[in-house]
Design a protein that fits this description.
By secondary structure, this protein is α/β, with parallel strands linked by helices. The protein has a single domain, classed as YbiA-like (Tetracycline Repressor, domain 2). The protein has 5 helices and 7 strands, in the order βββααααββββα. The strands form 3 sheets. Strands 5-6-7 form a 3-stranded mixed β-sheet, with no helix packed on it. A two-stranded parallel sheet has the order 1-4. Strands 2-3 form a two-stranded antiparallel ribbon. The chain is globular, with a radius of gyration of 15 Å.
């Protein structure tokens, strides 16, 4: 049975989108994936607003901005691109991600996110993760890890 990393905290905080690391997206360099992701939701002329704030502030601001047309159909691809940049362009983070081996990466949340993560307050024996939620972020992280592993062979 594979090891499971259920929370992106402590030793595994580097897996969190809030983890500080420079991420370039469409010509701007953001202080975290969260900042870049939240900025990507809105019109290019508004994106600088996400450069010099914390990831927490970026998330809050991202809930209030007018969304790009077709955002829902683009958001997973944008997240995949940002996660790829985070780990492929930063050797230290790449090494840490690869060191997770074949662990199942689960974005376990207590705030009820059942899209990017799983809701640790709601067990679900029908879910591959054991909790209710899609774990899209965890799946992207595992895809990126596999792609990085293949590139380093």
């Amino acid at each position: 049975m594979n090891r499971v990393i259920l929370k992106f905290r402590g030793k595994y905080s580097f897996l969190s989108n809030f983890y500080p690391c420079k991420v370039e997206y469409e010509g701007l360099v953001y202080p975290s994936v969260e900042n870049a992701y939240q900025a990507s939701k809105t019109a290019p002329h508004r994106r600088k607003e996400f450069l010099n704030i914390s990831p927490k502030e970026a998330k809050r601001k991202g809930k209030k901005v007018p969304l790009l047309q077709g955002w829902e159909s683009k958001k997973v691809d944008i997240m995949r691109e940002l996660i790829w940049k985070k780990f492929s362009e930063n050797e230290e983070l790449k090494k840490k991600l690869l060191e997770t081996g074949d662990a199942v990466l689960i974005e376990g949340t207590t705030w009820g996110d059942e899209f990017w993560g799983v809701n640790l307050k709601k067990k679900d024996e029908n879910s591959p993760w054991g909790y209710r939620g899609r774990n899209v972020l965890g799946q992207i992280l595992m895809e990126v890890r596999e792609k990085l592993r293949e590139e380093s062979r």
